[in-house]
Amino acid sequence: MRTKHALLLLLACVALPAVMWARQSSAPTGSGSQTPTSDPQAITVVQSALAAMGAQSLSGVSNVQEVVSLTTYDSDGPSTTTVTITTNGASLRMDSQGSNGTSTLIMDANRAQMQSADGVEEVPRSAFGGPGFTQIPLLSMLAHWQDQGAIVKYVGEETDGTSNVRHIRLQTPPDLTLGAGNSDAPCEIYFDSQSLLMTKLIYDIRSPADLRKTLPITVAYQNYKVVSGLAIPFSVTYTVRGTPLSNQVVQDVIVNAPVTTSEFQFEGAQ
Predict the structure, then answer these.
(1) Tens digits of per-residue pLDDT, 151-207?
(2) Fewest CB atoms less than 10 Å from the CB: which of 37, 57, 95, 182?
C-alpha cells in the first residue's frame, strides 16, 4: 500500500499538464518563437535560462526515462522505493516494485490510472494539471512558456540561502471548466544568477477530492548533470510549508529509451 501511496504522491508533484510534450517540438530557441506577451526583462531571462538548460537539444528527444530513489514522508515515517519514470509523447508512466508486486501509474492529457495487484483504479486527472513535469525543470518551464495566455514578470535579483538568484513570476490562465475558481496562484521560479539553471519552483497542486482546495509545493533542484544536451537535476526535494514531502535522487537517465506505445495503454473504458 505504501508503494501505491508513494506513486500517487509522486504523480501529484511531477504530473505534466495536457499536451506538454507535444509542444516541446516548438521550443522557443530562436527569435521567431512565440512567447508570452509580458515583461521584456523576464522574457530575456527565461529565454537565456531555457538555452542554459538545453532547449536547443529537444528537437532530437522523443522520450526521457529516469530511475529515481524516492523517499516519501508521512505519519508512519520515511519510506524509500525505486521508481522508473518514463515520458513518451503526451503520456507519462511510473513503475515501482513493492512487496505486493509492481504498481504502475499511467497518465495522458485526459486520464490517469493506477494498475497494481489490487486491481485498476482511476485517478482524478484534473487534480494534476499543474506546472508541468517538475522534476525536469526544462520541461516544466516549457509547459508554461508555450501558453499564449501566460503572464510573466521579472521580480528581481534576490538572495536565497547562500545563492544569488533571479526571480520570475509566471501566471497561466486556469481551466474554468474544472469549477475550481477564476484564478490560479502564480508559479514562483528562481534561476541561479550565474548558471541560469533553475534552483527552486513554488506552485500549487489541487486536492483530488475538492479541486477548489490547493496546497503550496516548493521544489528545490540540486546536482545538475548534462545528459544528451539536457541539464537534469539529480537531486529534487519537495516540501510543503517547510515540511518534507518527498526527496528524489536520480540513479540513471536515458534519453530516447526503447519504449513502445503499448506500455502507456489504459485498462478498460474510462
Answers:
(1) 889 999 999 989 999 999 988 765 555 555 545 668 899 999 999 999 999 887 766
(2) 182
- What count of residues does the chain have? 270
Are 102 and 96 spatial neighbours (Cβ–Cβ below 8 Å)?
yes
- Residue 65 belongs to a domain with what CATH number? 2.50.20.10
Convert the pLDDT of each residue in 32-47 to its tens digit: 445 555 689 998 999 9
Cα–Cα dist 80/72, whole Å: 6
Q: Interhelix angle for 137-145 vs 40-52, to 10°?
A: 140
Domain count, the chain: 1
Residue 90, C-alpha cell as written in the block: 503526451
Residue 269 within any structural domain of the chain: no
Angle at 162 between CA 156 and CA 167, to 5 degrees: 20
151 residue type, one letter: I
